[in-house]
Amino acid sequence: ADVCTFGMLISKVDICAEEICVCLYEFYRSFKDYLHSHIPCRRRDVLVLTPWLAPIVWEGTFSRDILNAQYMQKKLVTGVVTFAVKKYVQFIEGFMSSANKYFLAGHQVIFYLFTDNPEQIPHIQMAPENRLFVIPVQNHSRWQDISMSRMDIISRYIRSQFQYEVHYLYSIDVDVQLFEHIGVEIIDALVGTISSWQYTARRESKSYETRTESQAAIPKGEGDFYYTASFYGGSVAEVYKLTRACFKGVMKDRENGIEARWHDESHLNKYLLYHKPTRLLSPEYYWDAELSRPRIIQVKRMCSVHKNKRRQVIRSIMWAMLSCHVFLPLDFTII
Amino acid sequence: YTFECCYNSLTFLFFSFRRQDVLTVTPWLAPIVWEGTFNAEILDSAYRPLNLTVGVTAFAIGKYTRFVGRFLESAEKHFMKGYRVNYYIFTDNPETIPTVQLQPGRRLVIVPIKKYPSWQEISMRRMEAINKHIAETSHGEVDYLFCLDIDMVFYNAWGPETLGDIVAALHPGYFNVPRSQFPYERRSSSAAHIPDGEGDFYYGGAVFGGLVKKVYEFTKTCHMTILTDKANGIMAAWQEESHLNRHFLSHKPSKVLSPEYLWDDRKPKPPEIHLIRFSTVDKDYKEIRD
């Protein structure tokens, strides 16, 4: 990349605020190793438990072997709901092939793929335990309407179909790829994923709806985490309640001529503030490829598919260069 | 060098609720409850509207009836305040149970029970008695059930942070020693046997609980393994506590309480223990066990 482009890039690179980790000096503080020394999984650099005692799932906090053994005893079926409307059909192949490989591998998963263009679906090789249902759906002219109608569609289909077929259900954006296993550590009654944007300096760009006219409004100073609407789920009962409540909020806002700042995501955040999730997934579980990865994200399990390939390549080069720093990445604005 | 941390209004709250000196989540993602890991207000606001009734079982056999008064009085001050509570006191001597003033919504139920000849037998029969009582009575009366030792006192709040499907507590004597020192039953002839190199934690037999349905299930399993040992003429090293540990190895608890919830006052308080909530009463074991 020439110097000019490089300079522009640096000013745009997101600074990692890493609010949910402690100051680095604590990392080196003495730790009593004899305390549960046989337990291999520990993370002390991040928050692993919410104040309402819901675990936050990070690499290093869990043993998938133990969890698999527990899960196997129960013979559970998990569903995945995804929407591929209009040009989003281009992402189906990448999503389905990586999900078949990495999403609850070895366990029974039913994929429900909603699309307005069933003929355009390529042939997908499914893992033997998995099933795929293609469900035709109407499209809307505005992507925001498509996004918000997902809540309605999910709740209606839970009621009419999904509750009889799966125990747990997850809604995942289709424009993603999985790079690492996402396993049974995600299974719990009500699960939200912490947004990767929580870690950027430009926090204002991704935050709660504050206008009190909207149903999604959260009073200033309140809020636990910012959750992403790209990956959430739980038991069918809980997901039903969540999607119903969110869609009610969307409809009420529509009546009042207002649209929440981040659409269905704002409503999701409102719901999860007052109905605390029983488990949180760290941003490892959905990483927005626009952002550079802070040290605390040891694994990127699922990433948004970046539309601009060139930018992606330049970012990877930059990150590789900067990772050579032994200490903390320097404040990029100083550079 | 620069610090990477950045506090904003969204996350500032969480720095008051974290413990880094101790393990707060098990490898199967069950929370380990320590002071400083939870916000009692948030939990209360989530549980209060559910109108729950919490049961407590405690066995006061023989001379152990002398502990009932202090147990109940301290429970009235600290145990699940503001919730409906049923105390089930199992005793061979109902007349010696003192009358204790209870808060509204809380009641005392005396459950007559047979006295066995040895204290070990009494201890191990608890599983059977609890299981039978759930089937006959408490399943219809409570949502959650805690099975506690009677010779203990509450000193600080014990609230809804303790509620879960299957709840066990870390034994105060073994939470900070290497696993090889856990007093599991090591003889392979016992049904409570845990081989070397296995085991997650050493759980105390004085505190366990959970959803009444789950407590029914695991008291039944423990009673079965106790009977198996009896048929083979063996008694586990720490009686039903050994069987409990065996059970919780293969059926992991969904929530673990730190030793704050099961303390032994004879022990000096280590820095990890910030608050003692429930602890033993000093007593002469020889005298009391007859």
TrEMBL record, chain A:
GO terms for molecular function: hexosyltransferase activity; metal ion binding. The active site is at E265 (nucleophile). The keyword Transmembrane helix applies. UDP-N-acetyl-alpha-D-galactosamine binds at F83, A84, V85, Y88, D173, V174, D175. The keyword Phosphoprotein does not apply. Keywords: Glycosyltransferase, Manganese, Membrane, Metal-binding, Signal-anchor, Transferase, Transmembrane, Transmembrane helix. It comes from the Eukaryota. It comes from Strix occidentalis caurina. Belongs to the glycosyltransferase 6 family. GO terms for cellular component: Golgi apparatus; membrane; vesicle. Pfam families: Glyco_transf_6. An alpha-L-fucosyl-(1->2)-beta-D-galactosyl derivative binds at E265, D288. This is ABO, alpha 1-3-N-acetylgalactosaminyltransferase and alpha 1-3-galactosyltransferase. It is found in: Membrane. InterPro entries: Glyco_trans_6, Nucleotide-diphossugar_trans. Binds 1 Mn(2+) ion per subunit. Its cofactor is Mn(2+). It is a single-pass type II membrane protein. Its main location: membrane. GO terms for biological process: carbohydrate metabolic process.
TrEMBL record, chain B:
The keyword Hydrolase does not apply. The keyword Transmembrane applies. Binds 1 Mn(2+) ion per subunit. The active site is at E241 (nucleophile). An alpha-L-fucosyl-(1->2)-beta-D-galactosyl derivative binds at H171, E241, D264. Its main location: membrane. One of its GO terms (cellular component) is vesicle. Gene3D superfamilies: Spore Coat Polysaccharide Biosynthesis Protein SpsA, Chain A (3.90.550.10). One of its GO terms (molecular function) is globoside alpha-N-acetylgalactosaminyltransferase activity. Keywords: Glycosyltransferase, Manganese, Membrane, Metal-binding, Signal-anchor, Transferase, Transmembrane, Transmembrane helix. One of its GO terms (biological process) is carbohydrate metabolic process. Mn(2+) binds at D149, D151. Signal peptide: none annotated. It is found in: Membrane. It is a single-pass type II membrane protein. UDP-N-acetyl-alpha-D-galactosamine binds at F59, A60, I61, Y64, D149, I150, D151. Its cofactor is Mn(2+). Belongs to the glycosyltransferase 6 family. This is Globoside alpha-1,3-N-acetylgalactosaminyltransferase 1 (FORS blood group).
